[in-house]
Amino acid sequence: MKKLLILAMLAAASATVLAKLPPLSDEAKAKAAEAAAKTAWTGKAEAYQLCKSQDKVAAAYYKSAKAAGKETKPPAPAPACADPGPFAYTPPEAKPLEAAGAHSPAGTATSPPSTRQPDAVGNPAKKS
Is-above-0.90 flag for pTM? Predict the structure, then answer.
C-alpha cells in the first residue's frame, strides 16, 4: 500500500514538472535583452580593467628590473586596452503590425477552392 502511495505521489510531482509555462511578455523579453547587454558590457569593462592592471604590473616590473641592473627581454606585442565606455542600451525598434505583414492581402488563388468534379476524375488511380 505504501509503495502505491509513493508511486502516486511521484507521478503527481512529475506531472507538475511537465506543465508548460506561458510565453514571456514583450516587457519581460525587453528586460532580458537589456540584462544580456549589461552582462556583455560588464565583461568588456572587467577585461579593460584587467588589461590596465597587467600593463601597470608589467611597467613596475621593468622599472624595478632596470633599477636592479637585470637584463630583460622586450615585452611581447599585445593589442592596446580598449575602453568600453559607459553602458548604453538602445532597445531595437519594434515594427508596427502593418509593417510586419499582419494586414497583407492573401496570395492570388490559382484554382477555385472546390469543384463539382469527383475526386476520381481529377486524380485517377494508377493501375499496377
Answer: no
